[in-house]
Amino acid sequence: MSRMHDKAARLPRTVWALGLVSLFMDASSESIHALLPLFLTVTLGASAATVGLIDGVAEAVASVAKMFSGYLSDRIGRRKPLVLLGYGLAALSKPLFPLATSATTVFAARFADRVGKGLRGAPRDALVADVTPPEMRGRAFGLRQALDTAGAFIGPLAAIGLMVAFANDMRLVFWLATIPAVLAVLCVLLGVEDRGTPSPKAAQAPLHARELRRLPGHFWQIIAVAVIFMLARFSEAFLVLKATANGLPLMLAPLVLVVMSAVYSVGSYPAGVWADQAPPRRLMLAGLGCLVLADLFLAFAATVFGAFVGIALWGAHMALTQGLLSKLVAENAPPELRGSAFGVFYLTTGVATLAGSVIAGLLWDWRGAEASFLAGAAFAATAALMAWRVGQAKLAAR
Fold first, then answer.
1. What letters, b where the CB count within 10 A reaches 16 and e where it falls short, cover 50-85?
2. Which of 6, 36, 105, 242 is least enclosed by beta carbons within 10 angstroms?
3. What is residue 383's predicted lDDT score, i.e. its pLDDT?
4. Residue-range definition of the domain harbouring residue 254
5. What is the CATH number of the domain that holds 147?
């Protein structure tokens, strides 16, 4: 364990700084998102399908923005300006949530917030890969993800305390969530150091087909597995709806994301170490197995405890797979196209997440929670079969 900590301490300063930035922004975002499904359905009267549509479209928009921001960061040879712009836009979107009086305003706020996420995501991940030695990239992505996810359970915990303190006043919680978002922007300004990309070129758009053809076959096989995977990984809003449907009190609704994110955060760095030492397919199959089990528990659980077992397994699958996917993308793309490769990854998986969230919402309104989570289990099982067939040699990022 001490050797693990020593190697984490030797990771570049920029990796730690980006981790802290992610922590603050996720603390802000998740304190809002933990309450947003209930704010939409209880306060604003929206349907489960609307919740799925808003979350799905928001994530798809983020993915489209990641496509172009990653490509642009390759072209200009700089990552930090786009990272700063992305976090700045996300911070500016936060006041729209407490001001919302309709689902349309929430949609606009989520849209702006996710555009910000899209602008920063691919350049940030490419920058992590740029500054980290290849033999430590699993750890680097695992550490950033662990800090990111620490924010994702600190935010909901704060939301619970504020809901209790202020008599379920969700709008006030949303206002207070703007504070850590501002801290995130300050961390980018003061703590992140840029590093030029290998072959900066004059900016031009869009990404040309000839450059897409330079991405190797192994990269596209990873994309294919990830797309089916993301159909199963629909919005966590449905976890909140499931737990409250099983009897979780309104003021404790953020506990759903606390539990999921705690498991995710604690597991992310060890999973990153494992990704540096073991065949990637092994982690992928373990993560997809956790997701299948999570969906089955969530489909059939009739109690709050049963729902939380599924929620914890959902967090475990995230820990095992999210840093791994970033590592695989980074190491199966040419360094000069690394930002573009992350953009392609986020675009395709974002479209899949949109489709998965819309499908889950429609199934929920039609047949209830059981149908949504069983569909998720089916998609996860299909992704596991694809990962198995791709083979260890194809998934290996060596």
1. bbbbbbbbbbbbbbbbbbbbbbbbbbbbbbbebbbb
2. 6
3. 93
4. 12-192+215-395
5. 1.20.1250.20
